[in-house]
Specification:
The complex is a heterodimer of chains A (344) and B (744). The C terminus of chain A is likely disordered. Among the domains of chain A are: 48 residues, Uridine Diphospho-n-acetylenolpyruvylglucosamine Reductase, domain 2; 119 residues, 2-Layer Sandwich (Enolase-like, domain 1), CATH 3.30.390. Chain A is 28% helix and 19% strand. The mean pLDDT of chain B is 96. Chain B has a 7-stranded mixed β-sheet. Chain B has a 5-stranded mixed β-sheet with strand order 16-14-13-8-33, with helices on both faces. A 5-stranded mixed β-sheet of chain B has the order 19-20-28-29-32, sandwiched between helices. Chain B folds into 3 domains: 193 residues, Aldehyde oxidase/xanthine dehydrogenase, a/b hammerhead (Aldehyde Oxidoreductase, domain 3); 347 residues, Aldehyde oxidase/xanthine dehydrogenase, molybdopterin binding domain (Aldehyde Oxidoreductase, domain 4, 2-Layer Sandwich), CATH 3.30.365.10; 152 residues, Aldehyde oxidase/xanthine dehydrogenase, molybdopterin binding domain (Aldehyde Oxidoreductase, domain 4, 2-Layer Sandwich). Classes of the chains: A alpha+beta (344), B alpha+beta (744). Chains A and B meet through α12 of A and α4, α10, β29 and β30 of B. The structure holds flavin-adenine dinucleotide and iron/sulfur cluster. Flavin-adenine dinucleotide (FAD) binds next to β2, α2, α6, α7 and β8 of chain A.
Chain lengths: 344, 744
Amino acid sequence: MNSFTFTQAAAVDAAVREKASHEGAAYIGGGTNLVDLMKENVARPTHLIGLKKLGLDTIENTPDGGLRLGALATNADTAYHPEVISRYPLLNQAILAGASPQLRNMATDGGNLMQRTRCYYFYDLATPCNKREPGTGCSAIGGYNRVCGILGTSDSCIATHPSDMCVALAALDTTVRVSGPNGERTIKFEDFHRLPGDHPERDNTLEPGELITGLDLPAKGFAQHFSYLKLRDRTSYAFALVSVAAALELDGNTIKDARLALGGVAHKAWRDKAAEALLVGQPATADTFRRVAAKVLENAKGYGENTFKIELAKRAIVRALKQATEMKATVDTNAYFQPSAFNS
Amino acid sequence: MNTDYIGKPTSRVDGPAKVTGTAKYAAEYNVPNMLYGYVVSSPIAKGKITKIDAAPVLALAGVQQVFSHENVPHFAIFDRSYQDEIAPGGSPFRPLYDAEIKFSLQPVALVVADTFELARYAASVLHIEYEEVAHETKLSQHIDDAYEPGKGKIGFQPPKSRGNFGKGWKEGVAHVEAQFSHHAQHHNPMENFATTVEWLGDKHLNIYDKTQGAFNSQLLVTKIFGLSKDRARVISKYTGGGFGSGLRPQYQLLLAVMASLELERSVRVSLTREQMFSFGHRPETLQHVALATAADGSLTGINHFAVAETSQFEDFTENVVGWSGMLYDCKNVALGYRLAKLDVYTPLDMRAPGAASGSIALEIAMDEMAYAAGLDPLEFRMRNYSDHDQAQDLPYSSKALRKCYHEGAAKFGWKQRTAAPGSMRDGNLLVGWGMGGGVWDATKLPASVRASLDADGHLTVSSGTNEIGTGTYTIMTQIAAESMGLPIEAVTFVLGDTELPESPLQGGSWTAASVGNSVVEACTKLGEALLKQTQKMDSPAFKGVKIDDVQFANGQMRLRSDSTQAMVLRDVVQASGEPRIEAENSTLLAKLAMLKPPKYSMHAHNAVFVEVKVDPDLMTVHVTRVVNAVAAGRILNPKTARSQVLGSVVWGLGMALMEESVMDHRFGRYMNHSLAEYHVPVNADIHAIDVVFVNEEDDKVNPLGIKGLGEVGMLGVAAAVANAIYHATGKRVRDMPITIDKLL
Ligand SMILES: Cc1cc2nc3c(=O)[nH]c(=O)nc-3n(C[C@H](O)[C@H](O)[C@H](O)COP(=O)(O)OP(=O)(O)OC[C@H]3O[C@@H](n4cnc5c(N)ncnc54)[C@H](O)[C@@H]3O)c2cc1C
Ligand code: SF4
């Protein structure tokens, strides 16, 4: 870890100015990702700009009927906010499927979007990694890539974005609000994270110095039919092998509107609008779901250790859509298993 | 024996210290004027260091020294100086000795600075160049050059075959033959390895070490650095988990002592979590098992062969296959065990070493055999029950495994099991019931204990053993209180210091028996000393009385013949005019006993029953119920004993479902070196676990009848999970851990 200086910024424009005037500066939210990366020497900021005093930790209704999440609201406060629970339960489920209570208490919503991949090689300086050091090569290809992506990968990087929260945010058509040296702007969630292409070192489309100030959820929250299904190597405190955010609007058994996004499979939360279009107007049946699942994974590519994710993702999509339709955990969710009584 | 304390559920006496944070661990001793060392680890698996550019780092204000092979003196030259108590055969790794790189993450330099932060930063900018050569880390590519190790590590016996397996195989009417494997695992105790060396001047050191054996650390330090014992006091009062990782001193101890001696300062060196993957681990094994049964279900042949990894420089041996010649009755047994040398660090004992690995193969194969023979897996095991240890040709000192089968099965409800895979359901979920079990040595080693009663009537019992979280402080306090008839609050057990009477390493499930029996002996000696003192006092009733004529209760010594004739122990000490009366046991008899061939086979056993529920589409597995029935002689403290077995079960579940150190063979490096990615079970993975201790009285194993519990509870758990998954799904997975991809 390098030595660094620290300032607690008092206002958004001051933070942005501070960032512009320090080479090697970084914003810090809850620090749950950045500090780890600093300890591993993956991130070496010389100056940290604290954001906790910016007053961006509020969660408020917006005039258009939506909800604005301050970038500094913690993951825990967001998940348990009454408006989130009642109007955006998909987001509640997705956040609570991630990390651990301690981490969620520290982690901020802005930081969650900005967290970096969990690819093992990205974390280990002894191995080449294009994302960490452009041009050195991708060790995950041909290596231990169980945690890596199967959709939208490139020859230079097959990493995934590890967030659960972002999968729900993608499904819910969120807008990201940012402030930068050139003023404020908004970015559609689907445009926020990028695919690796030839520049895996760039996770997203933020311009240098830009700060996330908030996340705007539109009015439509799909609170009637939704499911966040996360499959992983242990029941808690593990990143998704595959996760699915499914949200439906139903008329009887006919799908009127649908949202479908996947986590753990790509460099970004993988929203598939073509698959959503295939769902609309169709009966909410296993057949429909299977067709759609096949479509989503049509162009998927496995890399050996992670090839199983293609089949797993298909099954997860079918299950998540079924759960969203029936609004009950069909079988496997965290809450399902209660210690059963012994026979004697 | 009256039992005021022994056998009673007693809360940990060190519990309050641990939950209030007053229990101090090796890296928590803040001695004045201390320096901090940070280890630089090799990025390559094999080759040599060609250049170390220390100058820019040394120029940083506050950096005291950069140690490497270039400037660390050769304190010792011969291998024997580097061999700790349980070093396997070979040539132990010597940190910072020469330019050679033998394994990935090998320590190559130690940067010492005024603060930890500075040392860590300086280490990150230290420029080192390497010349890499091709390494070999893939076990499956080295089966052909695997060899039979000699006796190797102390206590290791090469497995013995008997009868004629080929004949037994032919006699059989049903057969099973299969390959099994599991990956390397790292112990990953919560507490990282660390050593704080306090420089007391003139090469006198207080060494606070994370270890499972203070005396072993001291031995190594004195041998390598040529220090006398009184200059190298090792202290280890608490250990934040060991699981075997602390059985051999780790390199941070040697680096901290070296730096302290060179700089004549106090120095602390602690390892990072990543560096916890740089030393001993449970070795990967590849195993082959073949079984045959006659028409009545009796085993006619057992063949178990294993290849395990070891380093290029030491032959790490463990008993992987030997148990297969013991657990079941069979005349024809062929066993084989080989090692393959790889460019990795030497493996190390890890909870139930060998048996945990071997029982996966044996107990899955037994399940397969039961199906092939058309028998219920429990019934099949009962039919092949071993009443005599055929491996050693000895009678068992006691063996209540049959009770484990009966009581465990009853508690679990095994009778309701339907045999066909996929035949049991809970709604949509597939339900699977599987079982397994195992056997583990009941060992007792010589241990010295001192018992000292002070003039306030407080008893202090001490021994240089360790507490690795198993409950040693508590059970020894119970035994001492029981022996001296004192309330538990009037007894303190002291451990973890080389200035105390010598005790063996804390491992092998032998501490309860070894130290526990010695506590009784020391207390008996103390009783004799107290009785002797009464002879000098004006107490006619006690004149000429022998130790067998008195008993200790309520803080008194009483005549057995007339309990109204009593002396208060405190008064006896006070009358002596000394601050305390003390006594130490003699280990002579225990040492002699070790030289004699055993008359009995002394072992603990278990039978474990597991229920899994599997999602039929997603193939996610949940272990919803476990019953583990254990026969381990006398249970000293059902509360801490239960915790031991609960922990063992959790370990077994981890081994079955998620735990593995994954290596990228292109780099010869373990890649999931963090607790985020090295998966062990979390609370949400754990459901009902029921521990049953079956009654097992054993007056032959040792006077207290203790067999030890640290390891036996883990045996067969991983296999039982695999068997349950087969029962649920019809899928037989023989490669641990059974992750979701193997079931899709
Ligand atoms: C062991 C472990 C397990 C985890 N498991 C999961 C999981 O299962 N699922 C999951 O979704 N997540 C998981 N997480 C990740 C966790 O959700 C993220 O670490 C967290 O959301 C990051 O938020 P933070 O505020 O702490 O970010 P920080 O660590 O403070 O910052 C992360 C990055 O974001 C930048 N940043 C922070 N705020 C802003 C802002 N407002 N504008 C612009 N840039 C900003 C920082 O400069 C930094 O680069 C896990 C983390 C750990 C350590
Ligand atoms: S997948 Fe991306 S992050 Fe992983 S090694 Fe390749 S380039 Fe680096």
